[in-house]
Amino acid sequence: MRQAVREGDESALERLLEWCRPLLWRYIRKRAKSEQDSEDILQEALLRVAHALPLLKPNTPLEPWLMRIASNCLHTFYQRVATTDIPFSHFETEPTPRALQQESPEPSIVTQMDTEQMARQLYAIIKKVCSETERKILLLCACDETAESIAVRLKLTVGTVRTHLMRGRAKVLAYIVQYQPALVGGTGRIRDAVRQLETHGKPSEQLTCAEEYALAHPKRNQLPLRRACLKIARFLEFPPAP
Predict the structure, then answer these.
(1) Which of 4, 35, 170, 195 could form a Cys-Cys staple with 9, CB 3.0–4.6 A?
(2) Total domains present in the chain
(3) 102 and 175 share a domain?
């Protein structure tokens, strides 16, 4: 399977990541402060594993390598949290759909209709699914701050800000698709967005088989679902409030 991953087989990569997931989870959960922290650290570890696996030497023992990645992610996560302690009372603006699409290398999250009701719903979802750092960055975006100014405020690099911004959006969209599809017009509208991506998206933006399956069978903490949501995001829109 590792050879197939090195050759660029995406389905082999997905299978190997699923094999890695419980090993990483057991290591991280024993050491993280909370289950929510564990889930966030796990997602970061899986992303690092996915990026590094195709380049891993064939004779490298896999489990010790995974534990090193998990350990590094734990250290980085809590170091980052310690340097970004801003009280939420600082934020006076609730997030709007427009705020969620600023300063991102990924497709826009939605085509917007800003309403007070929508802002409250988005705020509740962000609080539920995002890590503390992701929440802060999304809320600062709602205050019209750029990635550069957020990086200075939170003592992060611009790249780190963009990564957390993208990850936070992916979590919010995945939650909406799984639990509140009516926020983007219902499951029919999501299927329409997939068809529009097939017609108008670049070859590199098309959904993989794993991502198509994840959209059709969404479940919690599913990386392919989050990737799929980011790909179809610009073809989704929030309907007007009744």
Answers:
(1) 4
(2) 2
(3) yes
Residue appearing with tokens 């709007």: 96
- Domain stops at, among 28, 61, 82: 82
CA distances from 233 to 25, 44, 191, 201 (A): 29, 21, 12, 11
**Phi and psi at residue 97, to the nearest 5°:** -55, -35
Domain presence at residue 32: yes
pLDDT surpasses 80 at 205: yes
Q: Which residues of 124-155 are buried (b: 16+ CB within 10 A; e: fewer)?
A: ebbeebbbbbbbbbbbbbbeebebeebbebbe
Which residue, of 46, 65, 82, is where some domain finishes?
82
Residue 51 to residue 53: CA distance in whole angstroms: 6
Residue among 107, 140, 142, 144 nearest 237 (CA): 107
- Cα-based torsion angle of the residue sequence 51, 125, 241, 138 in order, rounded to the nearest 10 degrees: -60
Supply the range of the domain harboring residue 29: 2-82
SS3 for 237?
strand
Least confident residue range of 9-18, 89-98, 197-206, 207-216: 89-98
d(CA 206, CA 194): 9
Contact 168, 128 (CB under 8 A): no
pTM equals: 0.57
The answer to whether the beta carbons of residues 79 and 95 sit under 8 Å apart is no
How far apart are the C-alpha atoms of 167 and 163, rounded to whole Å?
Answer: 6
Dihedral of the alpha carbons of 164, 165, 167, 172, in degrees to the nearest 10 = 140
Asked if residue 177 and residue 97 are part of one domain, the reply reads yes
